[in-house]
Amino acid sequence: MIQISELTRRFGPFTAVNKVSFNVKLGEVLGFLGPNGAGKSTTMKMITGFLAPTSGQVTVMGQNVAKNPMNAQKQMGYLPEGAPSYGDMTVLNFLRFIGKVRGFSGEALDQRINKVVGQVALSEVLNQRIETLSKGFKRRVGIAQAIIHDPQVLILDEPTDGLDPNQKHQVRELIRNLSKDKIVIISTHILEEVSAVCSRALIISSGNIVFDGTPAELAAKSKYHNAVTVKFTHPYEVKQKLESLVNVYGIECDDESGLITVFPETGKSVLKQVNELIHAQDWEVEEFHVEKGRLDDVFRQVTVGEIA
Ligand SMILES: Nc1ncnc2c1ncn2[C@@H]1O[C@H](COP(=O)(O)OP(=O)(O)OP(=O)(O)O)[C@@H](O)[C@H]1O
Known about the structure:
The chain is α/β, with parallel strands linked by helices. The chain has helices spanning 40-48, 69-74, 91-101, 106-120, 135-147, 165-178, 191-197, 215-220, 238-243, 271-281, 295-304; strands spanning 2-11, 14-24, 29-33, 55-60, 63-64, 76-79, 153-157, 183-188, 200-205, 208-213, 228-232, 248-254, 259-264, 285-290.
C-alpha cells in the first residue's frame, strides 16, 4: 500500500503540488495524468524520496519515506523522466552496478540480470554503451534498472515517452506482465495508455487532484459516452429524422469525416431507436458504433474547465 497524505511541494512562492492525498493498493496500476507542469514528476520524486516535500507524508509498504528513505526505497523501483545516467557504461556494466547497489552479488546478481534482460529484451545490446542506444532501448534500460530488485512498487515517469508504436506496445505489455500483485504508478500524457494498462486514473492539474476513478468512469464523463456514431452512404435528410427520435438530445455532423453522432439525453440510450430507424428507412450505412467516451475531451474538461 502507498499512502499519500496532504503532500505539498513549493518552489519559492510557487506551489507545484498542493495537499495531494491518495492511497494505492497492491494490484493497482495507477495512471497519473495531467498537462505539462501539472506536478506529476514532482509528486513521483517525492514518493520515491528523491525530493523532500514542503509538507505532508508518504508511506510505502509501511515505511515512511522521509523517516526511513533506505527502507522505503528497497520496496520501490523508479524510472525517472528521460534517459538513464551513466551513458558511457555498457548496458551490462550498468545493470551489474545497479544490481550491486541493490545488494546482489555473485550468482544471485547474474540470475537477476539474466531475468530482467529477458523481461525487457535487452540481450542484443548488452555490450553497447548506453549513450549509443536508440531512445527505445534507453527506456528499456531504465525499466530494467527499476525492476532489477523485483520491487513491489514501481514508479514509472512517462515510460513510453518518445517510443515508436511498436516499442510502446512492448513496454505496455511488459507493464501489464509486471503489474500482478504489485503497485505500479505510471505518469503519462497519452490517454490511450490509461485504457490500455491502467486500472485507475488520477488526473492532476496545477498541483491539485481533479479526477480519481477507473478509466471507464473517466470515459463516462465524456459527452460522447453512449452516443451513437454513424456514417451514411447518402447522408441526406437523415439529420432531421434522427433528431426527432425519442431520447435524442442532439446531433453532431463532422463534415470532414462524414460521421454523424447522435447524443442521448443524460442517462438514456439511443442505440435501439437509431438502429430501428436505419432499418425502417433502409438507409445504407458504412460505419456504426456506440461511443465509450472520448478521453481527450474529458481531459480538457477537467484540466482547463472546458466543456467537452
Ligand atoms: N526545481 C524546481 N524549481 C522550480 N520550479 C520547479 C522545479 N521543479 C519543478 N518545478 C515546477 O513545478 C511545476 C510542476 O513540474 P513537474 O515537472 O512536476 O510537472 P509535470 O506534471 O511532470 O510536467 P511534464 O508533463 O511537463 O513533465 C512546473 O511548473 C515546474 O516548472
